[in-house]
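Troubleshooting: if your tokenizer reports a length mismatch, compare your output against this known-good record of 283 residues.
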Amino acid sequence: MDTVESALRSATRRLAPVSPTPGLDAQVLLAHVLGVSRARLLSDSQRTLTAAQQAAYQALIARRAALEPVAYLIGRKEFFGRDFSVDRRVLIPRPETELIVELALQHARRCGLPARVADIGTGSGCLAITLALEFPQARVFAVDCSEAALEVARLNAERHGVAGRVTFLLGDALAPLPQPVDLIVANPPYTVLAEVEEGVRRWEPHLALDGGAQQGFAEPARWLAQAPSRLCPGGLLLMEIAAWQGAQALAAARAAFPTAETRLYQDLAGHDRVLLVRAAAPT
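Known-good structure output:
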């Protein structure tokens, strides 16, 4: 039987041709099988695996070798310091999306807490639920065109104790919102599907990825066009975009909101990542 150390060594070798982080993947998957933390795993490197543990681990490594994301294999992903359940019904939360939360918190400190928040394209619910936790007085709407995704989001809302304050709405883009809101956050499909990394294209939902024409900007542009009637005067819109869409995003935002403040924010890699629109305050 393998020890932890030998199992990790073998798995890392197997994943090296297909993963940019083979050692990390191997550790996360084995820690999941054993039900321990990575720190505990590494401190107990001479532990011998049982036959059942070894079989379960090898099955996960085989799936990872076929490019299935680690988050789907273990059924969860961390976002803004909290764990969210994920599976193939929803896009895996990305660290870049946390910038939307940070900007929303900055705006709240300057301009006051939002009473009504809408998360468009909620997927796993990571943005809606995080904002419900950060703004406990707010009413939150979580919108998605996929009922399957909303099922995952509802489970996450229950897990984090905010199911009573998040209203889940099935429908297209901003159309289901029953009233204007103070804060809109949105993570629309914005990729060019043919150019997406193979593992992402193979396993994650295309509905949440494919932004359509205009180099993936057709869907973000359509969502922006719907936004003026759904955003309160003085309200804030934060939309995630692709790194190459900054100029398109600013042009579309200025067309939709001629009197609003518009600007781009960059992610940690220095790429344009979030479009900010601050609607003109009431006079």
